[in-house]
């Protein structure tokens, strides 16, 4: 058979173009909406965010400002967005679609980057939904000064806190490559570390450098964050996000695709 001749049933892919990163990210986003688990999780994030804010508006005895509604939204989103990130990065291995994904894009690092970008976009989209809900409900709540303490830096800190949670779930999913294990680890590890930090009061200041869950929660404080608190968040990110992500990246490069 000559180089320019194809046997019956063969497909010529010589003219195929390398998919752009934008297209790969769009594919990863579509994967989440095409599966029942992903679609229902996306709907749950939106519905629960609306429901939580509405319930607080109805049953709260106080007049609620804008920041209160934003923090109410952060509670369900802080729980569900990391789960979404886990499912996004583990679906190739749990649903056995890796052969298709990595055959079409042999460079596995590009697939990981596309998934990371998609997870980031989902977090940003959820945050924008929270901002819209807070903006709509704030005038209804009737607070005397509803926009008190609202500032650009604070809004960015809240977004950063949600991104940290989402990337934390993504890192655990990438390191474990199993949805169930990664979700359990994401909720169990921070809980254990936080309990140890709360009980071991003598070393509490030192443990905050390892307790990302507690240190990142300081980003929701409307007052300014000190340099030491930023350093604690950065150290926690290196330990619980960057390190597992590097381990996961190395594992994906060497893993056998089945």
Automatic annotation (TrEMBL):
Keywords (A to Z) from UniProt: Membrane, Transmembrane, Transmembrane helix
Q: Which residues form a coiled coil?
A: none
Q: Name it.
A: ABC transporter permease
Q: Which organism is it from?
A: Nocardioides dubius
Annotated transmembrane regions: 39-60, 66-89, 116-142, 154-177, 184-203, 230-250
């Amino acid at each position: 058979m000559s180089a320019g001749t194809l046997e019956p049933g063969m497909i010529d892919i010589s003219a195929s173009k390398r998919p752009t990163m934008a297209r790969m990210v769009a594919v990863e986003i579509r994967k989440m909406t095409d599966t029942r688990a992903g679609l229902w999780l996306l709907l749950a994030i939106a519905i629960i965010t609306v429901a939580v804010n509405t319930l607080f508006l109805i049953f709260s005895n106080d007049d609620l400002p804008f920041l209160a509604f934003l923090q109410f939204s952060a509670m369900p989103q802080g729980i569900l967005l990391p789960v979404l990130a886990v499912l996004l990065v583990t679906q190739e291995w749990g649903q056995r679609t890796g052969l298709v994904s990595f055959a079409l894009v042999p460079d596995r690092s590009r697939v990981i980057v596309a998934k990371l970008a998609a997870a980031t976009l989902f977090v940003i989209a959820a945050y924008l939904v929270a901002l819209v809900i807070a903006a709509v409900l704030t005038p209804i709540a009737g607070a005397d000064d509803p926009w008190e303490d609202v500032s650009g830096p604070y809004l960015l800190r809240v977004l950063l806190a949600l991104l940290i949670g989402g990337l934390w779930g993504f890192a655990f999913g990438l390191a474990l490559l199993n949805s169930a294990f990664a979700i359990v680890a994401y909720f169990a590890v921070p809980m254990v570390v936080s309990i140890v930090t709360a009980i071991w009061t003598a070393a509490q200041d030192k443990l905050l450098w390892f307790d990302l869950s507690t240190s990142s929660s300081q980003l929701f404080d409307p007052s300014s964050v000190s340099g030491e608190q930023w350093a604690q968040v950065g150290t926690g990110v290196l330990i619980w996000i960057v390190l597992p992500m590097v381990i996961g990246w190395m594992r994906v490069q060497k893993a056998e695709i089945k």
